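[job 4471] stage=fold_predict status=RUNNING
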Amino acid sequence: MNEYFPSVLLGHCANQYRMSFTAGAHSARHVRRIVRSYLREWDLAELTDAVELGVTELLANVVRHVPDRRCTLLLRRQAGGARVEVADGSPRQPVPSAWVSDDAECGRGLVLLDAVVDKWGVGPGPGGGKTVWFECGVGSAPD
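[job 4471] inference complete, writing structure tokens
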């Protein structure tokens, strides 16, 4: 079950994947498999670890901080890399922790995200919410 998910398109894999869902405790695991499959199809498997970790952190933030847990994930192929966006209806902006105690169980997500992706940010989202995004490998090679 944790293996490769082949493309459902014959001969061509779309340059983006979008999914709207209500995030739960196990959502990140399922989304990581989808992301891994697309990255392999796009010959971007070297980005898998960073993109999977980024997706996990953004979805964990939805589960923890968005009251209805509804979100839309967009995975998009870009020149030499990938961009991930997670949009939700909450206006609450993510704030990286300046300091986290050694025994804290949360608060490191955005610090980890910043360490493994090339760039990330937050912009306005639908319905007064926000879109948190990150990019990995973008611009490092021709498409």
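[job 4471] summary: The CA atoms of residues 101 and 136 lie 28 Å apart.
[job 4471] exit 0
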